[in-house]
Amino acid sequence: MGRVKHFPRPSKPAASDNQEKRKRRSKPGTKAVREIRKFQKDVKLLIPYAPFVRCVKEITNQFSSRVTRWTPEALISLQEAAEDDLIRMFEAGILCAHHARRITLMKKDIELTRRLTGIGRPW
After folding, report:
1. Does the pTM exceed 0.85?
2. How many CA atoms lie less than 13 Å away from 27 in the CB half-sphere?
C-alpha cells in the first residue's frame, strides 16, 4: 500500500471577513409578513391587466357573440371587483384554516367558505 499524502489545511479567515460574507438570517415567516404588509399598503391591482383582459374576452366569447368590445374603464372596474371578491374569499378561507388549527390554506377551506357565503351555490 502506498502512503497517503496530507495536504495542508487552508487557514481560517479572520472573524471580520467571516461576518461580511455571511448573510443575516431572519426567522421563518418574517419575509411573508413583510410581503403582506407591503401588499396591504399598496393600492395597485394584483392581477396583471393583459392576462385578465384576455380571460374576460375569452369568457365573453363563450357566452355571448354580441358583446365584442369592452371599454378600458369597464375592464378595470371588473378587475377591481374580481380582486375584491377573491381577497375576501381568501381571508375567509384563512379564518377556516385557523379554526381547524392549521396554518396552511387548503382546498376544503375555500369550499367551506363558498358554501357559507353562498358564492357559487350549486342549488
Report:
1. no
2. 4
